Amino acid sequence: MNMFKKVISTVLVAAMALSIVACGSNSTTPAGSSAPAPSSSASSSAPAGSGETFKLGAYLQLTGNNAPVGIEANNSIKLAVKMINEQGGFNGQQIQYIPYDTQGSAEEAVKVVTKMMNTDKVNAVIGSVNSNEVLAAAGYLNDAKIYNFGLGTSSTWMKKDWPYVFRASFNNDFGAPKYAKILKDELKVEKAAVFYGQDDSSLSNGKTVVKTFEDAGIKVVAEETYDSGDVDFTAQVRNIINSGAQAVYAVIIANDGPLFVKQMRQNGWNGMIFYKDTWMAHQREIAGPEASNYIVSVAPYVCYQSIDDCDIPLMKEFLEKYQAEYGSIPKTECAYRGWDTMMVLWEAAKKAGKNDSESLKAATETLKLDRLGGSFDYTVGDREGLHEMNAFIQIDGKNSSWEKWFTPENYEAYKK
Fold first, then answer.
1. Phi, psi (rounded to 5 degrees) for 305
2. Could you tell me how far CA 106 lies from the centroid of its own chain?
3. Cα separation of 127 and 148, whole Å?
4. Hey, which of 56, 140, 273, 413 has its CA 20 to 30 A from 90?
5. 191 CB contacts (<8 Å, ≥6 apart)?
6. pLDDT at 8 over 60
7. 257-273 pLDDT, tens per residue?
């Protein structure tokens, strides 16, 4: 997108938001949205006659091509709300959870955030797994001084001067040095390709990785891009394969990722594919088991085929809770993002002793705690909880630690 288009886009989004503020709405769901009505289960459990609830809004993609990630994040948030309310809520206030469907649209995210602020009068908000939606909408929450968390993993929106916006998922850019180390020091890769989208979030991570690779002495011989909604990557795949690249790094989300991986394999790429997020169980189902072999991710957690595959007590406890509530364990790691975000928010409320945005914000900035993603530390001052991640490689549906897998024997077997 050129600069002119960016300016026009920004003006249109801002105008849309101002129009909604002026007009308002008494309906629970924004006009033209397929969002579910706000959950009443949490508010119905509020103490009789108290009239006091903590209104927690959320904007998530719950319909459309990439809905599985938003649905599982939503599931985890609802599960956490239920558990927290059973234990007294936030400082005695029961949580009323108010989720909206963004339909995968940044413009829709701005609409529903504006409605949550002006009609629902929310106390806090959890944002989308889609970083482009967070980038478009979180600034309005920050300007209104409403405490909020984004679930996306792009660096873009956390680079903004938005002191009321936090993250309890992870920052893809933090993984770039680890990818470079694996490629350069361990695999002895000299030439790599990078594939990324044209949207701001994908573009940011793609450019960060290109620079990190080149600074490490890895020549980037192909930079290929795609537009959101593309399903045929044949031309980009052929350019990557013909470039002489020994490895490829892909910045492509959710259900779009398996299409790229499958087309890479179908065109003869048998090497490793380095992927910006965890390669999730539902992505493996789309791409196929064979195509999903030798995908490497740097992330704080992985997806499991069964609870028995997990040997981390805290994660196992969560998986058991999730299965008991929904009948199966998550197929996406976005469920972990939603749960960790709620646990951080709860811890902030307990430490603050009160529920206003200023108190929650100040308490969050002092937090150190262990959750599904590992050790969170908000005292660093960048509003990020996670700063360290692990590398994993997927083989036959299971994610193994890179450090444990990368032995001379395993590497020789892979090369054959």
1. -80, -30
2. 15
3. 7
4. 140
5. 218, 219, 220, 221, 243, 244, 245, 246
6. no
7. 999 999 999 999 999 99
Question: In the block, which residue shows the tokens 């690779």?
Answer: 213
Q: Give me the phi and psi of 197, to 5 degrees please.
A: -85, 170
Strand order through the sheet with 165-167: 94-101, 53-60, 124-126, 147-150, 165-167
Cβ-based burial of 16 (10 A; exposed 0-12, middle 13-18, buried ≥19): middle
Question: CB–CB of 245/210 below 8 Å?
Answer: no
Question: Comparing 257 with 56, which gets the higher pLDDT?
Answer: 56
Strand, helix or coil for residue 237: helix
DSSP secondary structure of 30-98: -TT--PPPPP-TTGGGSPTTT--EEEEEEEE--SSTTHHHHHHHHHHHHHHHHHHHHTTTBTTBEEEEE
Token digits of residue 245: 């690249």
Cα torsion through 194, 199, 202, 208, rounded to 10: 80
The DSSP line for 169-220 is S--GGGGHHHHHHIIIIIS---EEEEEEESSHHHHHHHHHHHHHHHHTT-EE
Q: Which residues are CB-contacts of 366 (< 8 A; sequence separation ≥ 6)? A: 351, 378, 379
| Among the listed residues 75, 150, 65, 163, the one whose alpha carbon sits nearest the alpha carbon of residue 109 | 150
Host H or E run for residue 225: strand 219-226
Q: What is the mean pLDDT of residues 227-232?
A: 88
Q: In the chain, how many H helices and how many E strands? A: 14, 14
State the CB neighbour count (10 A cutoff) for residue 162.
18
pLDDT digits (tens, 9 = 90+) for 107-141: 999 999 999 999 999 999 999 999 999 999 999 99
Over the chain, what is the mean pLDDT?
88
Euclidean distance between CA atoms 114 and 217, whole angstroms: 46
Q: Say if strands 53-60 and 124-126 run parallel, antiparallel, or are unpaired.
A: parallel
